[in-house]
Design brief:
Helix content is 64%, strand content 8%. The protein contains 15 helices and 4 strands. A hairpin with a 2-residue loop joins β3 (99-101) and β4 (104-111). Residues 1-23 form the signal peptide.
């Protein structure tokens, strides 16, 4: 295929304005970079089996990177004639040669228009509590695009909600294999392990949750407060180690004071370790932030009364 020169702005505007799918419609995923050599290197990685989703998220400079490169649904008849010639030769799942877009360079992947539709359907089904239909929609999507990282994550959540933890972990690990530096996947894995530990009472899941939260922190500092909360939660409520939980919960409460659970669990941990002055101190601090924990407050009053 030969390079095609169109402006990136025009192409993205066209994709953004595309609406319902017809027989001539296709969904496009794009990776846009500044240098032709970088684009060639990315295409080589794709040929070697790398995930298009992941490379779009981590390498592309286009706004679509926030959607893992998904640029929308486009009708072939509305596309620039030279680009149309390229796209017409491609089947769903195929990606283009390096294509010039003004001063930038792109690799474009053609998808069935069902891909974005199925993802949106699965999200809506999850929001409505329709877990089994959401699982079916996500699996149908993955038959069309096996490296679709968001679909793997959504399917993992749905399977977890159905308490199929073994399959949930398997699916989320597949997402991690496709996107190894995405901390959000490890946070999700830690959350699923935590849920599995509560439901099955298997200590192994708790240990695995700890490992996942720690890995997430190493990959992305933005997840540190949530990971500290997760670690504190596991130590306090699963492993029954309130003393070990306190340092994590203190950090979570300091780093993200808007997290109600961080304050709640920290007060709980202070009570369980019988460090009542600290429990009262943090209770007052949390109240000053607008949080109310009536059960913990009643527990503290009962302890205070019994100590007189």
């Amino acid at each position: 295929m030969y390079p095609v020169v169109v402006t990136l702005l025009c192409l993205l505007t066209l994709l953004a304005s595309a609406t319902s799918a017809t027989a001539k419609d296709m969904a496009l995923r794009m990776i846009v970079v500044r240098q032709v050599d970088e684009a060639k290197a990315i295409r080589k990685q794709l040929r070697q089996g790398a995930s298009f989703c992941y490379l779009a998220k981590t390498k592309s400079i286009a706004p679509s990177r926030k959607q893992w490169g998904l640029s929308g649904v486009v009708n072939l008849n509305d596309v620039h004639s030279e680009l149309q010639a390229i796209l017409r030769k491609m089947k769903p799942g195929q990606f283009s040669d390096v294509t010039a877009l003004g001063r930038h360079y792109a690799v474009i992947k053609v998808l069935s228009p069902k891909v974005p539709d199925l993802l949106e359907t699965a999200k809506q089904q999850m929001n409505q509590g329709q877990i089994k239909p959401a699982i079916q929609s996500a699996r149908q999507l993955l038959k069309l695009e096996k490296d679709n990282v968001p679909a793997h994550m959504l399917l993992g959540v749905a399977l977890s909600e159905s308490k199929d933890f073994k399959e949930s972990v398997k699916v989320i690990k597949q997402a991690r294999d496709y996107a190894p530096t995405e901390a959000q996947i490890l946070m999700l894995l830690g959350t699923v392990y935590t849920k599995a530990a509560f439901e099955t009472e298997k200590r192994t899941y708790s240990k695995q949750a700890i490992g996942a939260f720690r890995q997430a922190m190493k990959l992305n500092k933005g997840f540190v407060p949530a990971a500290h909360l997760g670690l504190g939660h596991v130590h306090l409520n699963l492993l029954k180690q309130p003393k070990k939980a306190i340092p994590y919960l203190k950090k979570a409460a300091d780093q993200a004071p808007q997290l109600a659970r961080a304050h709640q669990y920290l007060i709980q941990a202070y009570i369980e370790t019988k460090t009542y002055p600290e429990a009262w101190k943090h209770m007052r601090y949390a109240q000053g932030k607008g949080f109310k924990f009536p059960k913990l407050l009643a527990q503290l009053h009962k302890i205070k009364k019994s100590s007189k």
